[in-house]
Amino acid sequence: MTGTIKVGRPDVRPDMTAHLKGVHEGNAVGNYEQQPGHLPDGCSTAARSTGINPKDRDPIDPAMPNLSPA
Question: What's the rounded Cα separation, in Å, for the pair 68 and 51?
Fold first, then answer.
């Protein structure tokens, strides 16, 4: 049994560009300072990987290395 599929009007034009000028990527320079869990020296904390009780995922002893869960 063959039939036709009814579709609506397309949301975009096929000739429209996929990239827009002025849209910043998430890894652009300066964005790490704005994200929680990223330290200025390039290290990360548990807050980078999880939003659920990140302080509970930090090391117990301050002398231990801070390894993020992911």
Answer: 12
The predicted-structure confidence for 24-55, as pLDDT tens digits, reads as follows 666 667 767 777 878 788 777 778 877 777 77
pTM recorded for the entire structure: 0.44
Question: Residue 21: CB partners within 8 Å, gap ≥ 6?
Answer: none
Map tokens 């002398």 to a residue: 63
SS3 33: helix
User: Cα–Cα distance between 43 and 33 in angstroms, integer?
Assistant: 12
What H or E segment, with its residue span, contains residue 49?
Answer: helix 46-49
Return d(Cα 2, Cα 30) in angstroms, integer. Answer: 55
Burial class for 6, CB neighbours closer than 10 Å (0-12, 13-18, 19+) = exposed
Tell me the pLDDT tens digit for each residue of 8-19: 887 877 787 777
